[in-house]
Amino acid sequence: MMDETLANHLAALLAGRLSEAETDALLASLTPDTATFEQFTTLIAAVRATACPLPELAEPVFDCCGTGGSGRPHFNVSTTVAFVLAAGGVRVVKFGNRAATSTSGSFDLLEQLGVPVEYPPERLPRLLAATNLAFLYAPQCYPALKAVAAARRRFGRPTLFNYIGPLLHPLHPGRRVMGVSHPRMQAFIAQWLATDPRTHRAVVVRGHENRDELTPVGTSVMYEVTPWRIDKRPWTPPDLPCDVEAQPYTPEANLRQFRDIVTGRDTVSADYHSVRLNAGLGFVAAGRTETLADGAACAAELLAGGEVQRQVATFLAHVHR
């Protein structure tokens, strides 16, 4: 379903043709607690129509991405998970951005790691073939959103724009894990994926305290999505010896934590367990393992055996060629 009037207003917004008052009124109609699923789908279609072209890939890809929006500083779990999955043979093209509501978004960490933020898209197939991994910077794929970003900052409250990011992936991955921080948006995203003909299997997860990832403490809620089917269930982790310490979670601090996890120096922190569990969920969604426990065990072996560290080194070597 599509709201034609809304579609026209969104097209005008993305083209920079709305006044400040008109923009604020439009954004006010798109709040996550009140917007309809029809408005949600209309917004996704309007933004996706502005995507820049990318090279076609011969094989399907996987994405692991979170919406953000929990309001809490945190480690870059899904970015680290991308390296783990690639080390395990999954072809990952992760879609992401800089931080909007946290202190370190995916590309804030990647920049610290030395990854070019705006990688030339024509080189993506070669990079993916050599490393099983690539990253797409959302503003590079959707330049029309730059004008909307300023209006959203002025508006000052969350809207549907805060939650549609992973669904804008321009390569349309058929398999994915998505973290969502808002319960209503989690249900909308699962519904959208279930009706998207390109979806083969996806898991949409909301963790303890509305974190946009599977959490190693508390209860998470998972929507397991296959074509035209959604299975919702809670998930509570086994008792894990998590070392929980206060962290600044700046890009610089997250880079240190990233290195500790991928080199095997950290096997006890809550961040390590978050990476292990979310990578395990990724292996399930990618069809590599049957259960989350098996997937998490696979992730732990890849981290302990040095495969993920080698994956990082290989990727960094090729991304600069």
CATH architecture: 3-Layer(aba) Sandwich
Please count the beta strands (DSSP E, at least 2 residues each).
7
* CATH fold name: Pyrimidine Nucleoside Phosphorylase, Chain A, domain 2
Mean pLDDT: 94
Instruction: Tell me the major beta sheet.
Output: 5 strands, mixed
Low-confidence stretches: none
Q: What is the total number of structural domains?
A: 1
Number of helices: 13
Radius of gyration: 19 Å
General form: globular
CATH superfamily: Nucleoside phosphorylase/phosphoribosyltransferase catalytic domain
> What is the strand arrangement across the widest sheet?
1-4-5-6-7
Strand content: 5-15%
Helix content: 40-55%
The rounded distance between the terminal residues' Cα atoms is 45 Å
Indicate the CATH class: Alpha Beta
SSE ordering: HHHEHEHHEHHEHEEEHHHH
Structural class: alpha/beta
